[in-house]
Specification:
Residues 54-80 form the SHOCT domain. This protein is an all-alpha fold. The chain has 2 domains: 1-44; 46-84, no CATH class. Helix content is 65%, strand content 0%. The chain is built from 3 helices and no strands. It has helices at residues 10-40, 55-65, 70-82. Helix 2 runs antiparallel to helix 3. It is rod-shaped. The mean pLDDT is 81.
Length: 84
């Protein structure tokens, strides 16, 4: 006697078991994807120790884009480095 383990559930038992299996493996895949994406960084992530709003970096980017000339760049860089 197997207490209803075989043949007692009908077709719906197989459907429910299939859905649960898909949910389980989908959850495992989602966890793996999140772990891989988190470990390798991605767009918008900055290396450790480099704040995303570093004033000198922003100033250098503006100079590189041509928004400010060299005189203004050097004056602002000196002002940034003099601050307390």
């Amino acid at each position: 006697m197997m207490y209803g383990w075989y043949g007692g559930g009908g077709v719906w038992a197989w459907v429910v078991m299939g859905i649960v299996m898909l949910l389980f493996w989908g959850g495992v895949a989602a966890v793996v994807v999140l772990l891989v994406r988190g470990s390798r960084g991605g767009a918008g992530h900055y290396p450790p120790g480099a704040p995303h709003d570093d004033p000198e970096r922003i100033l250098a980017q503006r100079f590189a884009r041509g928004e400010i000339d060299e005189t203004e760049y050097r004056a602002r860089l000196d002002a940034l480095r003099r601050r307390p």
